[in-house]
Write a structure and sequence with these properties.
The protein has 774 residues and is of the alpha+beta class. The protein is 40% helix and 14% strand.
Length: 774
Amino acid sequence: MGDPSAIGPTPRISSMEKPDAYCSAIAEILSVPQFNNESDVREDFLLPLLKALGYANSGKHKIERNIRLHVPQLIIGTKKKSMETYSPDYVLNVNGMRKWLIDAKSSTESVLDMRHISQAYSYAIHKEVNVPFFSLCNGEELALFKTADQNYQPIATFKRYELDYRWQEVYEMLSVDAFKVRLQLISNPSAPVPSSSDRSKSPKWDVPIQKVIIPRKQASPIHAGTHPYFTKRAWNVVRQYIEHFTDKDDVVLDPFGGAGVTTIESVLVGRKAVHMDINPIANFMTEALLVPVPLDQFGRTFEKLLSRIKLVIRDIYSQSNPKPQHWYPKDVRLPKDADVEFVHEYFSPHQLSSMAFLLHEIRRIGNSDLQKVFLLIFSSTLVKCNVSYHNTGRDPKAGGGDAGFLKYYRYQIPRHRFPEQDPVVVFTKKYEAMFKAKREISRFIQDPQWVRKRINIIQGSATSLDGIADESIDYIFTDPPYGSKIAYLDCSILWNAWLQLSVTNKEYEQEVISGGFMNKSDEDFITLLQQSLTEIHRVLKSDRWFSIVFASENPKFWHAVRDYCIKTGFEHVNTVCQPSDRKTVKKNQNPLTVFRGELILNFRKRKSGRNIVGIKSALPPRQYVLNSAELTIVAEGGKASIEDIMQDLLPKLWESGLLGAVSNEIEDVTELLKDSFEYDRKNGVWKIPHKTKIGSHIPLESRIKFYLLSCLNRAKLEKRMVTIDDIVMEVLPFLRNGITPKNQDIITELKKVAYSRDEMHWELLPSLQSEFSF
């Protein structure tokens, strides 16, 4: 487990940026004038805080109360007595495993009192609890301690009044999400880490990001609610990467710019940005979102526009079969898999007439920046005002729900039509969201010309960065397409048609996808992606960094990226398994075969890249995959989703250099899983079949070593010491296959992979510390 003390400082987060659940918890805590006793601290401070951090009264992320602890060998005088005491007030579980504890004190007691620290420490080290962190809270201050640090100094303290602006810091240390993802950092063991003396002489980016960042997509008014797009990276993750790998005025490139998150966040933190995308709507959206506008003028323009459209649209809806009186995209063909042939058929007569009139009125706005912003609001309104609109149940309010082309990545129309949304209401809601975004941008930027000097938006393909000079870019953060998941140009026809943004056949040819309008093969996709990687290497300055986000369950795509980056001259330094904050559309559609989450691969441009040192495995690829899947299922309490399995498997295959072998032998991992595990479709999880013994997928001759390595690796990551009793009790349950080894068998194998410094605890041999747990 990662060390929370290693988490760097985070920007202050205003209450406006926090999701509602967190705001209400903080408001509840701050509303209490004074906590009179420990019970008040527990019920009115700790419980709201813990629930906001993702813990619950039951389930695998459980809050345990008053666990009875036994001390069986306490000697008083000449007699042995069996004693018992009580645990701290709350012990917190993540995925069914105890991770930390918290003890409440009254407001008159100090959380730094050695008596209280010693008491909480004794709970933390008790063999029935055994957690790496403990904390104390008196209602006014919370102190967090690391159990392994015996200096009794807190690694963090939080005053009650600080929770409002230090919430993300608290969340990244103590939330369920933080503990779930802290183990998902995979570092390249061959990459040198500068010593502390070296770091003072070197740029800050000499050491890559070494932590998982809790994604908070919905917390930014700029990126959430203004205009939908098929994939948007979490803004706070992107921002932290930019700030880590660059200095002020450095140039950041995103050659697969998409929704513009990289570009927008770069400018907001004082960098210059180059945004490139082959999709015109992506470039239009980025420019329109980023350009500042006078808020008072923005508001007045909306009021005038609203007063003109209200009566006309009401009149349109009073007619039985209205005909459009203004321009609209007529006879623009949709993809072959669409439920209708043309764009205009995707709208009812009332919607078509209303949208045509609204667009006509927006085109009359004289100020070009304001017109651009209102066109983006119009484009967002189109998503709700078409015949594919259906309420998803996520947002029952007016304007909620989704469109077919966003939900299913094709122009689908539901069998049962939902009531049409009022265009005026939807347009108003979209304006309100945009106003919040512009108000937020105005905190950073006031001058439109200043923005235009800081950004360069290029319409084009990442396969040819002709407009960018060699070695002119300081940092690249990008999120390329993942094969055939989304045909971006196809899915954007509706937006591009209404805004009269043209797409040529050449651009379809250069789009880095498989499938789509051109029906490209996987090999086409790999070729185009590798052309892009060549260009990325060319424009990046020497010794600077390139971060690529990738999430595909197809191993051959991972293999193609890894090998080609190294071949091109990049040094792969580390990989972070970054979680997603919500299920994707594809995940909702295909829970069996699509996983959630992604890897962020950090490369550095060197004159000669270094290959990753692979870990040899005597197991065939099929067995390797089954071993990993079984370990994941067991670790997740007997049931694991496809994303749990793939997030464990893919990084290890990547780092071990086995992607190629797996890619050649196994086309579909889920088909392999079907043969060996049971899929619970109702709950979307994989299970070990009934009456199948744990460990059946691991050969007997290597089984003991297999689980010993897993146990010792996990102990090392969690920074805890383990005895032979701990090891035997942890390993034996995995060996129930009819032939259970004797303890001596385990000890014999243990001596091959571990050693002891103090004749009590076991540690993994240094020569094996880069080896994965299988």
